[in-house]
Amino acid sequence: MDSPWIPMIYQYGIGGAVFFAGIIIALRKKMLTAAHHSDRGMLIQLIAGFLFYFLLHFLWMIIVLS
Amino acid sequence: MLRGTAIDIVVIFVYFAAILLFGSWFGRYTKSTKDFFFGGQRFSWWLIAFSCIATVVGSYSFIKYSTAGFKYGFSSSMTYLNDWFLIPFFVLGWLPIIYFSRVTSIPEYFEKRFDRKTRIAGVFVLLMYLIGYIGINLYTIGVAFNSMLGWDVMISALVISIICGIYMHAGGQTSVIMTDLAQSVILLLAGFLIFILGVAHLGGFSTFWNLLGEPFKLPFAGFNAPPRFNFVGIFWQDVFGSTMAFYFMNQGVMMRFMSAKSVREGRKAIFIVVLLFMPLTALAVSNAGWIGRAMVNAGIISANINPDHIFVEVANRIAMPGLFGFIMAALTAALMSTIDTLINAVSAITVNDIFMPLKPDRDDAYYLKLARWIAIVAAILGLILVPLYQTFKSIYLAHATFVAAVTPPMLVVIFFGAFWKRFNARAAFLTIVVGCIFLGSSIAWPVLIAPFDHGVAPEGYNYMRALYGIVVCTVTAVAVTLLTHRDTKDISGLVIDSLDVAKRKFKDGRTPHDTVLGEKVAARIALKEIEGIAVSSAMMKRLQAEPGDILYIADRRWWLGGIHSLHVTAEEPHSDAENVAYLSEENLSKSGIGPERQILIEKII
Questions:
Q1: CB B62 within 8 A of CB B334
Q2: Residues whose CB is less than 8 angstroms from the CB of residue B21 and which lie 6 or more positions away in sequence, other chains included
Q3: Residue B210 CB coordination number (10 Å)
Q4: How far apart are CA B434 and CA B473, in angstroms?
Q5: B92, B239, B274 ranked by CB distance to A31: nearest
Q6: Domains in chain B, ordered, with CATH?
């Protein structure tokens, strides 16, 4: 467990599973309909937020380790 | 011991007086229990967002995160940057459920969703949690004032509790939200000021950066070491304990989102909070520790400094007289904005979950008066707990142990309650009881946590207790649910499967029309004794509204954030002038909009 990347992989592995489970449940329960304009917007915002944090941490790691 | 100058003390007193007057002034907007607890469901997203930040940053945040930042580096920001994983469950499930079902507290949700017994268990656990939290906040500000200004811990806590008690007594949720707006700006400003002045003091950003070693600058702590600050422990304790409790269980936060003018506005608020304000807050509360470490490496500060004093040491070195007082005011702001939320939450739970079921026939004025007095009692109870907390070796330890022991059972019940239709009342009650017993046992016998420790040493089990609690409660919830019969109770609108029913109930049985939203339209109010609001046919078309829809009318000045506004039902359209909206004098008075004002109207649902 010495690699500094392990925490990031663990966080986005477990956290990502929870995050996408939330979206899948919402889609299955029709809380979110991909065909609907505003729902699609919200789905994009949610995934963009996930990518924002992933990239923030990824770039942060790269900058420090390089 | 460091002391402020006379100018610093004047700055602090001016701040106290200003907040007291500011908060009390907003008491004029509180005319009912709905206003007291929820601010009348009228606020804009940006007010809710600022208010959330003021609530999430407690008085201890600056001290605690600066200390962690000084000892462990940039990974002190971990807890502020891992909230996004839970957001789909919040914005797509929990937020619309609580908003549309108009529940006033988590225990009330428990009774509607499960039964009376589960509600009582929920009341008991939540009140313990909230009052304990008030006590911890009062104690920490007492300690901070003691170390910086030399004031006695108890006297400091007493002064703060009196101020919070008074403006909460006068104002309720509107006062909380408006004072939080001011206080969140102050505390973020103070945090950035420390960073800018600290970096300048060191000779620029590149000097600051180069003074710090590589491991110090990583965004994550070591995976399972050191035991008192490791990644895996903090991940489970923070994401599935503190963060989940903040969004799903914290009565104060729930009331914040209930005070939003719409679910859409609540969603905007949470997006801004997590994507923008959380990273900024992480920097604001932690950076004094990072600056402090750079100062130690540069030989400016002694390497033997007590890490708990690093925030004060850095603030004292970079701040001139008056500015130190401003930073102290920011610390106080952080405390008051957290504590007022907690006090308001205790009022809400006590009135709605204890007094209303006991005395259901009283009028709203009675409950409102009661809520105001309970705000004072909550502040006093928190104050009484201060001497108890003074006996703990570490307040952080006491806090973490207490929170980890309380949150998992409630969170598992809330989560399954909202997202699993089959989850029944018996399982909910047993999850709370069994969860509390097992979590209590793990304090006596920490070895119980060992199977979940991920290699973390026993000193770090306070963090891993969250994972242990979640597993125990989840197993109990699933096993009891599957081994018992389904509930026959009607729970439509209270679980994710039936949100259309919740929306319909929100509209008093009428069909929701929220798939197509129209424009925001400007109108001029004319008085007419009607129940809702009547606008012209052309305006109804632009709003995409039908008679019976809920409209939101607000003063056109956006920066009021909805303080002068109202939810009102659309009547049949009129055929008079196109930009005229008819409204009764009573509704106009409720909205706070002056008769000469132009308004903006939008469809809510």
A1: yes
A2: none
A3: 12
A4: 7
A5: B92
A6: 6-480 (1.20.1730.10), 514-603 (2.40.40.20)
Global pTM value: 0.86
Our CA-based measurement puts residue A27 at a distance from the nearest CA of chain B, in whole angstroms, of 10
- Scan for tokens 């909910």, then name that residue: B428
pLDDT of amino acid B392: 64
Report the candidate in B579, B597, B578 with the shortest Cα–Cα distance to residue B588.
Answer: B597
Q: How confident is the model at residue B494 (pLDDT cuts 50, 70, 90)?
A: very high
Q: At what angle do helices B323-349 and B153-171 cross, to 10 degrees?
A: 60
Residue B545 vs residues B83, B100, B111, B123, B538: alpha-carbon distances, Å: 36, 19, 34, 40, 10
∠ Cα B545 B546 B548 (to 5°): 115
Residue of A nearest to B454 (CA): A1
Q: Which amino acid is at B51?
A: S
Q: How do beta strands B598-603 and B550-555 pair? A: antiparallel
User: How far apart, in whole angstroms, are the C-alpha atoms of residue B172 and residue B312?
Assistant: 33
Contacts of B215 in chain A (CB under 8 A): 4
Q: Is B575 exposed, middle or buried (0-12, 13-18, 19+ CB in 10 A)?
A: exposed
Q: Is some CB atom of chain A closer than 8 A to the CB atom of B91?
A: yes
Q: Show the 3-state SS of A5-52.
A: CHHHHHHHHHHHHHHHHHHHHHHHCCCCCCCCHHHHHHHHHHHHHHHH
Q: Of B228, B233, B237, give the one whose Cα is nearest residue B407.
A: B237
* Cβ neighbours of B113 (radius 10 Å): 27
Instruction: Dump strand ranges (E) for B180-247.
Output: none
Higher pLDDT, B605 or B450: B450
β-pairing, B550-555 vs B565-569, is antiparallel
Average pLDDT across chain B, whole number: 85
Partners of B550 in beta bridges: B569
A20-43: b (≥16 Cβ within 10 Å) or e: eebbebbeebebbeeeeeebeebb
Q: ipTM score of the complex?
A: 0.95
Between A32-46, B162-176, B205-219, B371-385, the lowest mean confidence (pLDDT) is in B162-176
Minimal-distance CA residue of chain B relative to A39: B515
Of B28, B400, B351, the closest CA to residue B234 belongs to B400
The reported pLDDT for the residue numbered B37 is: 56
Per-residue confidence (pLDDT) for residue B417, from 0 to 100: 95
Per-residue model confidence as pLDDT tens digits over B53-74: 877 776 667 878 888 899 999 9
- DSSP code of residue B448: G
Could you tell me how many residues make up chain A?
66
| Alpha helix segments (H runs only) across B57-115 | 59-72, 87-89, 95-101, 106-113
Which residue among A11, A22, A46 places its CB closest to the CB of B235? A11
